[in-house]
Structure formats: C-alpha cells, structure tokens
Amino acid sequence: MSTFKEYLSESVKTYEFKIKIAGDLPEGFDKAMKTALMKYDCASISKGKRIPIQESPLDFPEMKNTHVTIFDVACRYPVSTQTLTEYLADQLMIARGGIRVRSAREEEIIEDNLEGLNRIGTSTEAILNKPYETESAQDQVGDKKVLNFLKELGKISHKGDQVKGVNDAILAKSSPEEKNADPFKGQKK
C-alpha cells in the first residue's frame, strides 16, 4: 500500500500551453517570461520559434506584415488561458492584442477547423445565402423510388444455400427449388 506522499508525488500533472507573441521581442525576453511563469510552477519552456513575416498572421489578423514567436510552456499549477494571457501581458509589458495563450486542446480544435475550411474551400460565404439548385429529386422519393426498389429486389436471386452441419445425414442433399407450377392444376373450375 502506498503512502499519501508517494501517491501525491505520482499524481503530478502538467498543463501545456502555446504562447504566441506578435512583433519583435527585446533581448532577454526568454528569461523574463520564465521568471514570470514561476508563479504557476513552470516545468518547462521551449526556446521561442519565430514564424516568418506574414501579411496577416493567423492568430493576429488585425496586425499586418509581422512575425510571430511561439513558446511551448508546461506548468504544474492549473491556470486558465485568459488568466495567463492577462498575467503575462502585465508582467512582460506586452499589449493585450499582441499575445495569445492557448491550451493544447484549443490548438487541436483550431487546426481541425482550419483543415475543414481548407477542405470546403476558402470561401467564407454562408451556404444559407446561396440559392437552391434546380435539380429535381423526384426519382429519389415517392412511388417512383418504391417501384425501382422493388424491381431491383426482383432481380436478386433468392436461392437458399446448403449448410453443412451435424444433421447432414437426415437432411436433404440439396436445397429445394420452387417450380412455377400451376397451383390449381387438376381442380375443376
């Protein structure tokens, strides 16, 4: 049986975030960020990865022609992304519009949404605003569909298959076949 201290030490959980900062960063910014994150028991912080200058960065659409630096951070103390954004903006003296903090799950959701938009196309126009197609779908519904379905079923062979098993000695050697015989043959009308 484990002691409470052992159980507690095994249950350490880390909370991962991606911190994105737009624009140029001053020298020694990494150390300042690590110092600020000590409040939330920072387990690790990656070296900042700088994305090339883009006309309109994904997370900062209001900023034009700027680059973004991304830090991967893991904290042992739970904190929300909004709280961390406000705290880092105050501590590092960054404008609130120039910093984005997202959890790992939020990043996955954003990537999935972007993938879906790329699959659909780059059009952001709502589908509801487009006119309906004038194609008729009457062959897919109603009596026509039922008749076509019954015709397709009539084409399928309904012959049973012989099954091998324990009782083969007492059963028929082949499955019986229906013959188109007149059921009223031999009866008087």
Descriptive notes:
By secondary structure, the protein is α+β, with helices and mostly antiparallel strands. The chain has a domain at 12-120: ACT domain (Alpha-Beta Plaits, 2-Layer Sandwich), CATH 3.30.70.260. Helix content is 31%, strand content 17%. The chain is built from five helices and five strands. Strands 1, 2, 3, 4 and 5 form a five-stranded antiparallel β-sheet that branches. α2 (29-37) crosses α3 (81-92). The longest helix has 17 residues, at 104-120. The model has no long low-confidence stretch (mean pLDDT 82).
Write a brief structural summary:
This protein has helices at 4-10, 29-37, 81-92, 104-120, 142-155; strands at residues 15-22, 42-45, 49-54, 66-75, 99-103. It is of the alpha+beta class and 189 residues long. The protein has a domain at 12-120: ACT domain (Alpha-Beta Plaits).
Low-confidence segments, ≥5 residues, pLDDT <50?
A: none
Strand percentage: 15-25%
The coarse silhouette is elongated
Class derived from helix and strand content:
alpha+beta
Question: Which terms would index this structure?
Answer:
17% strand; Alpha-Beta Plaits; alpha+beta; 5-stranded antiparallel β-sheet; 189 residues
Task: Tell me the layout of helices and strands.
Elements: H1 4-10, E1 15-22, H2 29-37, E2 42-45, E3 49-54, E4 66-75, H3 81-92, E5 99-103, H4 104-120, H5 142-155
Helix pairs in contact: 2-3
